Fold this sequence. Notes:
- By secondary structure, this protein is an alpha+beta fold.
- The protein folds into 2 domains: 26-168, Immunoglobulin-like, CATH 2.60.40.10; 174-257, Immunoglobulin-like (Sandwich), CATH 2.60.40.
- It has 3 helices and 22 strands.
- It has helices at residues 2-20, 82-96, 281-309, and strands spanning 29-34, 36-37, 40-41, 46-56, 59-62, 102-105, 111-117, 120-126, 129-131, 134-138, 141-145, 147-148, 154-155, 157-160, 164-168, 174-183, 194-201, 204-212, 218-224, 230-234, 242-248, 251-257.
- Strands 4, 5, 6, 8 and 11 form a 5-stranded antiparallel beta sheet that branches.
- Strand 4 and strand 5 form a beta hairpin.
- It is flat.
Amino acid sequence: MTKKFLPCILAALLCLTSLVLPIAAEDTYALNIDFMFNNGPVGGAQFSVYRAIEPKDDAFALTDAFAGYTVDLPEDADDPRWSVIAETLAAYVARDGITPDASGMTDAGGVLRLTGLEGGVYLIIGETVILGDVMLLPKPMIVSLPYTDAEGNVYFDFTVEPKCENRPIPSDELERRVIKIWKDDGNETLRPHEITVQLLCDGDIFDERTLNEENGWGYTWTGLDAAHRWQVAEKEVPDEYTVEITQEGITFTVTNTCDNPPPPPPPPPSTLPQTGMMWWPVPVLFGAGILFCVVGAAAYVIRGKKNEKT
């Protein structure tokens, strides 16, 4: 009898164990990069991913490799400013040569599969690709692993499709412009007198320029080789400020923001304008009047006595 029911007992214990023990969470994740252009796959494209950001205390924080960069991270995972953060960090990655967490090339189908990635927020950067007479420049992007969509579905194996800028080859020489924007509620006392911006050519520093009030906080480079990728970085971010760098056409905008500027100093106490007669002569004139009265009274008394004698 015991042997007959032994399989049933084991099955029941197995079901009970599965209810008591929690399901093990995923320790690593997979990311698929699907690179397309004109509805066709692009093979041989080099991509690198960097675990730049991690959740911390119900917010986001830069990882140790990126801790030296002063950027203001959005609090909402769906904030459109993440694309700006990606563009900003990509310039510093190119300049400083940060080591990626994973990298590789897309296959003939235009897909790169990266596995064994730790949970966090990843910066994805693609290298320039020459495709016939067109140069493709993948735009940096940011993705969170695991990925959660708007409906709350969680993906441990996620696919992204990077967008890209395309430029004909050969092409004319390029022009690139940089402008500086301050966001500090007009509190100019915090701003430095000047800042330095760097023009990067394929990640190497090509030129440095000082921006200040004299040049309108802007500069334009001309005659640049169109066969290279050009980016802009701020050399040193001013204290109390964060930095965002965006590109629109030929123009790079470097925005420094101070989220909590101190209140401006109070104005100096105002001095009431003096109108009419000044007050300092009054005591002098009053004293002189008394003196004249005393002298006049004395003279009157003396004159009266002289009249009595005569």
